[in-house]
What does this fold into?
Amino acid sequence: MNAQQTRRLWLAVAVVAGVGAGVGLMLYAFQQNLLYFYTPSQVAEGTIAPHAAFRLGGLVVEGSVAQGEDSLAVSFALTDHAHTLPVRYRGLLPDLFREGQGIVALGSLDASGVFVAQEVLAKHDENYMPPEVAKALGEAKSRPLGIAW
Amino acid sequence: MIPALGHVALILACVLAGLQTILPAVGAARNDPILMRSALSLALGHALLVLLAYAALTWAFVAHDFSVRYVAGNSNLDLPLAYRISGVWGAHEGSLLLWALVLAGWTVAVVALSRQLPMRFRARVVATLGFVSLGFLAFMLATSNPFDRLVPPALQGSDLNPLLQDPGLVIHPPMLYMGYVGFSVAFAFAIAALWSGDLHAAWARWTRPWVVAAWMFLTLGIGLGSWWAYHELGWGGWWFWDPVENASFMPWLAGTALIHSLAVTEKRNAFKRWTVLLSLLAFSLSLLGTFLVRSGVLVSVHAFANDPARGVFILAFLALVSGGGLTLYALRAHRIRSAGHFELLSRETLLLFNNVLLLIATFAILLGTLYPLIVDVLGLPSMSVGPPYFNTVFVPLMLLVLLFAAAGPVARWKKVRSRELLRRLQVPGMLALALGLALPLALFDRAPAVTMAAVALAVWCVAGVWTALWRQFSRMRRGTDALYSLRRLPRHMIGMACAHSGLGIVALGIALTSAFSTERELVMEPGDTVAFAAHQFEFHGVRQVEGPNYVAEQGRLTVMQDGQVVAELRPEKRVYRVQTAPMTEAAIHSTPWRDAYAALGSRQADGDRWGVRLYVKPFIQWLWGGALLMAFGGLLALSDRRYRMRRSARRP
It folds into this structure.
């Protein structure tokens, strides 16, 4: 091998090693951060370990929202019409959160089987149904968001 | 009447786009000068017709012509004029028309500013751009005609989405599209070169200003989008790794890589094939972004399947354009040979690393954005990829980019000795170490290691590029006076210095605001005070106010520092009259050092008490300041003497 080829080889090795490391990092991070989506019925099957993060979708049960005394603690129930799951959340709820509305919550189950949400999402469109909730409810009601910007 | 005129103009524009694709291409194949020349007038005529259609739609908005379905769906008699004009691009159909208008604008710019290029090359460039435009115009006419009529006409429109009624909407989409679509020029230049099978020696020099211009607009567009999300959504976030954001960020990363590899191709005649491939890639990612945003596929694969016409059309077009480009590349790339040789340690190698890092970042984002869609299509259990994934991958990659961003400008082309490189980087290195440790600790008296590293690398990036500029200046200064040589510094170098500094400033802003932002969510009643992060917020209650097309409950808070009132914030909770969804309008007081941010939550059951969300976000304005500086750097590079001389030399 002449000097030119050696240089090329080293460069190629460096680039391949770099890309390899980058892709490795990427896939590792990917595996660690996949969030599954479950409905109350799937949770009711009892296969989800406590404290494992996932996204839960369903409709807010009418009359289930209870605000805590003098604090931002709130509890409500989510349903997919087959099963219902109690949810606890601390913080301000999004503008469009209301009873009967389809929402998605991010969080995990506690030891007693209550879903503790860290984040509650209800999109900025009153007719909008989170697609997964719509699917879970067997409704083809979802429509484009219209907020592409 | 006028909407009908717009519709006709759109149809004619589509026909002309078809001719603009075929005639110049045939002319180039036959070497027929008349057919090749037709490219120029066809491009101009096509642009005028698209402009006419666009003007007609704007008129329909301004004049409240609710016989146009699109206007009825996105406007209202009470909608203020500014939002009626910008409402044109507020939804699907109109934004496509804006896309076509921007593309026509770029085409005319290419025609006007490329007179010194060989006629055959120009004809092929215009033909390629014509084909892209043909695709979009046909798509509009077939599936998303903005001039569809409503019979009988609506008496009142159902209003523009309240979320879009914001000054951000007026400027963000046009800037973003200028960037997205601008990469079509580099794409067309690459196609034209591959088509002839011969990469002209000056190809990179021709392409460069177009890429820089597109990149500049895209930088502004993304920056504006982030700023808009920050102050409009009421969550204090400036980047959510939302698929729509990712759609614009991927072409930006690829375009940034392209700018750097073009530099190597122009200066050193190396990386040629790679540069051509990147040109194809950058625009393909723009098209992919358009597909993601416009096909409805993001909302749900099922929505996409229910109304497949739109999605399938864009997908087929995407496959045709990108696939066609890549096939042409596969057939012709072997004819392109790079010449410049370089050593293992050289500016070329450093720029190669920059490219590799940027492309890994691009594909990481691509994976995270597309994976949930693929899973959904395959019918696997539904899942999503959250911001933690993107942050885990993106942050280390960008730290490495910063590391190389300082070394690249000070390294010589072809070969640099490591000792020489290290000596040149001494000052930036010392500055980085000192400020990286001192700045976070001095300002916030505790700091995570990653923040210190990020601050240090941000400083390093800025100091590195100014070191390079200083070296250039000292070289030129020998024998002449300082002011003269300062004026003679090449603009593209000052532009690079600004762009790299902008990057460093963005990184600094991100590092500090991510580490040291504080927030409080609480219930407040009038007279309550809360203190955190050296600020006191006092809540004075909420009153009703009326806007042009909404009513709002407006809270009033005073912000105090050291007992002095520094700002009054009036966050609102708006209910628009037509689309009655409540909207949070945050109130922000900005200084270069921190933002004080307040958003209203909901009224508590007992009436007088409100949920309030408060943030103190240090250095967050640096993000957008840095983005602005990056774009300004692009502008400086565009004004470089090299491009101006060619222009003035053309005039007899």
User: Anything to note?
Assistant: The radius of gyration of chain B is 26 Å. The first strand of chain B starts at residue 383 and ends at 385.
